[in-house]
Design a protein that fits this description.
Layout lengths: L1 H10 L5 E5 L5 E6 L6 E8 L5 E8 L2 E2 L3 E2 L4 E6 L6 E8 L3 E8 L4 E5 L4 E5 L7 E10 L2 E10 L2
Antiparallel strand pairs: 1-13, 2-12, 3-4, 3-7, 4-5, 4-6, 8-9, 8-11, 9-10, 12-13
Length: 152
């Protein structure tokens, strides 16, 4: 019975999570809004060899906890009022190597190195926007990443 309930929840239309990208492994994390504030920024930390070591998301004016491993140089994208993240391109090998973020205002920002297998993440329905990020990390950085989409 529990198996059927789990499968029903995973396949229901209320499930925000789509595909996870990267080989995975390590500690799981999820960053999602817990109040009425919209996602207003993303900060990633890049190591010396170009791996994405960790990630943070900003809701309103507050940053989430940092997920991943310590270190790296921080880079961030801050959204303007009314601007939303609408799609994400990325690359990975054993770890997440690159994220390119596209916004509703036609802006594009890239973090990391342009190497590895590519992926493209978009919401399942028009007008949905990024509301959260999840994935896994270990040893040198993020091993997988996925995106939560919903209406703003």
């Amino acid at each position: 019975m529990l198996l059927w309930l789990t499968l029903a929840l995973l396949w229901s239309s209320t499930c925000w999570a789509d595909e996870t990208f990267g080989p995975g492994g390590g500690t799981y994390f999820m960053i999602s809004k817990n109040n009425e504030d919209e996602l207003t920024g993303i900060r990633v930390f890049i190591g010396p060899v170009g791996l994405i070591k960790s990630i943070q998301v900003r809701y309103g004016s507050s940053w989430s906890e940092k997920y991943g491993i310590p270190g790296g140089k921080s880079y961030e994208l801050l959204l303007q009022p009314g601007e939303h993240i609408t799609r994400i391109f990325g690359r990975y090998r054993k770890f997440i190597q690159r994220l390119t973020i596209y916004t509703s205002r036609g802006n594009k920002t890239s973090f990391g190195k342009e190497v590895g297998k590519g992926f493209f993440a978009t919401p399942s329905q028009n007008r949905k926007v990024l509301i959260g990020v999840y994935g896994q990390y270990r040893l040198y950085g993020l091993t997988s990443i996925g995106f939560l989409w919903d209406y703003p």
